[in-house]
Design brief:
Elements: H1 11-35, E1 39-43, H2 48-59, E2 64-68, H3 76-86, H4 99-103, H5 113-122, E3 131-134, E4 137-140
Parallel strand pairs: 1-2
Antiparallel strand pairs: 1-3, 3-4
Length: 151
């Protein structure tokens, strides 16, 4: 008999071991679920695309952390991390049709990335939406179904 093969002659012992292994598996699954990071959406409830994206995520049963970014804007470090995950420049990430974009003269090429990020922190309406973060990735969910690409 090979060394790694254990023969169980007592059926009740075998059943007990199987039951213990199943219980351990259930316990580990619960622990893993507790550590599962939620999907995060930077959300504007007045935006139809943002509402649709949130609806898609919730219907999938995702654990969604909602950040209403107009009430709680991300700081410059958070925005820089999001931009890094998106692989976009700050200018590509801005809503150019917003009044603040024109009023602040942000269409001028002399503004640095730091200037643009600072403007988005001060005027969160400039931030493109909705932003979904999951599994170490980010996506601007336009169309809303794009959120599913990173889940």
């Amino acid at each position: 008999m090979p060394d790694d093969l254990i023969e169980f002659r007592n059926e009740s012992l075998w059943l007990f071991i199987c039951w213990q292994l199943r219980a351990q598996k259930r316990q580990n699954r619960i622990l893993l679920d507790d550590w599962t990071m939620p999907v995060t959406i930077y959300h504007n409830p007045r935006c139809s695309k943002s509402r649709k994206t949130l609806d898609i995520l919730q219907k999938r049963g995702e654990n969604v952390r909602v950040i209403q970014y107009l009430k709680t804007p991300p700081d410059s470090n958070d925005l820089a991390q999001i931009l890094n995950l998106l692989g976009q420049s700050p200018r590509d990430f801005m809503r150019k049709g917003e009044a603040a974009y024109k009023q602040l003269g942000l269409d001028s090429s002399y503004h640095s990335d730091e200037d643009l990020i600072s403007a988005m922190v001060q005027h969160p309406t400039l931030i493109e939406r909705p932003i979904v973060l999951a599994n170490g990735k980010a996506v601007v969910a336009r169309p809303p179904e794009r959120a599913l690409e990173i889940i």
